[in-house]
Amino acid sequence: MLTLREMTEKYKYLFGPVPSRRLGRSLGIDLIPFKTCSYNCVYCQLGQTTHQTVEREEYVPSEEVLRELEQKLQENVEIDFLTFSGSGEPTLHSGIGRIISELKKITSLPIAVLTNGSLLFEKEVRKDLLKADVILPTLSSVNPESFQQIHRPHPGLQLEKIIQGMIALRKEFKGEIWLEVFLVQGINDTEEEMKALKKLIEKIAPEKIQLNTSVRIPAEEYSLTVPEDKMERLAELLGEKAEVISESSHLTSAYQKADEQEILNYLKRRPGTLQDICQGLGVHPDQALKYLNQLLEKGKISLRVWQNQKEYYLKK
Question: Considering the entire predicted model, what is its pTM?
Fold first, then answer.
């Protein structure tokens, strides 16, 4: 039986558009139950992985996802990318290839897939992603010890196979690859790490190399943010394709109306600051703050402070 929240949600599998530091205004497509993933990354803003797996299934109904997308695309909403992301690793969904193919028939908006890259060694996974426009895999280290410390992968995964999967993707995929290197202070933020990584990245040949670090509360408090000036120096070691991902500056000039449920739906997929929520939903700060305070009073959401930022999150 559906919960009251599920019955009142307009969209169960979509969220946003949300402000993405890499993709602008991103309409999220969430194919995976909360924290179902092949990794248990120390930096994940959603917290610890509760269902760690490498088994592909149709975790949510593909037809329902497509129905919601058709409905959403009829709304007058500014979108830069349709992005497969959300509560877990999207390539675990066995129907992602079909959903991408059907999307291509109904929209010209670019399609992005945010993936940890762990399953790209499977030929069927690579085939499913071939019609996307941009694939954004993560590879933070070629050092097995550092890789293990950061990503804490499923026991069935091996770093060498993951790397070979990314190299194979480059040979088959005609779109762009934007490789994310997620930096964690004290683990992989050294020149030695970057120099070793550079040799491997040359084989993957991504169009972009994007250095990232924690800007929201991570799963583990020791997943410390790397200062931007240090990230810039490390980016130089990776060559001209490397860039540091900075805070989003995509601001809305035309405000829309929102309600409590829309804010709850946003926070269901990701925690957010007041600025994140305003940018993602296109609402005025005064309106958003009114509903956030009401939700706090009702005990439906909580507030925490990290690195001097107030961040709202949904109570589970």
Answer: 0.80
